[in-house]
């Protein structure tokens, strides 16, 4: 069964939404908003293990929110573009307006 173009597009939107659905991934995005970082530094700053941090970064990479490059044995991550920062800001605004506990 073939899916419609609209369904395919919405599945891509859902991929991005799922990438934003974990607090650990939001913490990683906050760190990367300050500049590119090695996986080890991100793990240290967020309190994640390196393996767990790498898994979260892969999810963010699949959603095209971050990109990576190799530097010897290290992998360095950065935000794909400034629109990711705008998305995070909009998420904060919606949460503040709609959720009493925020």
Please give a structural write-up.
It contains 5 helices and 3 strands. It has helices spanning 5-19, 23-32, 39-46, 50-62, 83-98, and strands at residues 37-38, 66-71, 74-79. A hairpin with a 2-residue loop joins strand 2 and strand 3. Helix 3 crosses helix 4 (50-62). The radius of gyration is 15 Å and the shape is globular.
Span between termini: 43 Å
Helix/strand class: alpha+beta
**Helix/strand order:** HHEHHEEH
For the residues shown, what is the average pLDDT? 95
Rg measurement, Å:
15 Å
Quickly count the helices: 5
Strand content: 5-15%
Total number of strands: 3
Please summarize the sheet with the most strands: 3 strands, antiparallel
Strand order of the largest sheet: 1-3-2
The protein's oligomeric status is single chain
Share of helical residues: 55-70%
Unreliable residue runs: none
Q: How would the global form be characterised?
A: globular
């Amino acid at each position: 069964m073939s899916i419609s173009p609209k369904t395919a597009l919405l599945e891509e939107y859902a991929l991005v939404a799922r990438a934003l659905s974990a607090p650990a991934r939001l913490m990683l995005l906050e760190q990367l908003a300050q500049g590119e970082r090695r996986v080890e530094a991100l793990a240290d700053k967020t309190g994640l293990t390196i393996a767990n941090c790498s898994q979260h970064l892969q999810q963010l990479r699949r959603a095209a929110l971050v990109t990576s490059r190799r530097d010897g044995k290290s992998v360095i991550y950065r935000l794909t573009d400034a629109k990711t920062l705008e998305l995070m800001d909009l998420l904060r605004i919606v949460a503040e307006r709609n959720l009493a506990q925020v």
